[in-house]
Amino acid sequence: MQNEQEINQEEIDAKANDMNHPEEINENTQEENTNENPVNSGENVSEEEKLKAELAMVQDKYLRLYSEFDNYKRRTSKERSDLFKTANQETVLAMLPILDDFERAMEAMPNEDNTASIREGILLIYNKLKSTLQQKGLKEMEAMGIAFDPDLHEAITKIPAPSDELKDKIVAVLEKGYSLHDKVIRFAKVVIGE
């Protein structure tokens, strides 16, 4: 009895190792069925059926997991591309009234002889644009008269400092620097006094 259990355990282990090769399983089981007596063949068939059922269950689980992951990849890539397309939508919508103001100003310019009123209108539009961008997180960097910082400034040239206080400091700003939510998006182009 114990020998039969050891033999059956060895057969189960061999079948478990051969699960990746179903052709070999079929050949081995046919040979075993012909060599064994009819009493043991019923036990082997049920064990073989159990292994086949387990293999089918594992394969089904694998296919379901694979298809679920594939669907997840497709869905996230679509969401990402949609996000990139509409990422600036809020900012652009906030800028549209300013665009309208510029159009109204251009329509009024040929009719207006007073340059003071034109300047005033342009100044109003500029302030509106600046405040809209500040609401979206844009900050202008202070650069004039402070020490040069390569993480914030881009040195264009050096000139003799107008006073000793401005030595190794910024004496002129050629182009303002800006940060968006504390991340530098444009370095300030500056002139350093020496």
Could you please describe the fold and organization of this structure?
This protein has 194 residues and is an alpha+beta fold. The chain folds into three domains: 2-80; 88-136; 137-194, Head domain of nucleotide exchange factor GrpE (Nucleotide Exchange Factor Grpe, Chain A, domain 2). It is 62% helix and 15% strand. It is built from five helices and six strands; from the N terminus they run αααααββββββ. The protein has a three-stranded antiparallel beta sheet. The protein has a three-stranded mixed beta sheet with strand order 2-6-3, with no helix packed on it. α1 (2-17) runs parallel beside α3 (38-86) and α4 runs antiparallel to α5 (115-135).
- How would you describe the shape? elongated
Q: Level of helix content?
A: 55-70%
**Which residues form runs of ≥5 with pLDDT under 50?**
1-5, 20-41
Average pLDDT, all residues: 79
Supply Rg: 39 Å
Task: Name the strands of the widest sheet in spatial order.
Answer: 1-4-5
Q: Which percent range describes the beta-strand content?
A: 5-15%
Tally of discrete structural domains:
3
Q: Based on DSSP secondary structure assignment, what is the total number of beta strands?
A: 6
Please write the string of helix (H) and strand (E) elements: HHHHHEEEEEE
Tally the helices: what do you get?
5
Structure classification: alpha+beta
Largest sheet: 3 strands, antiparallel
End-to-end Cα distance: 100 Å
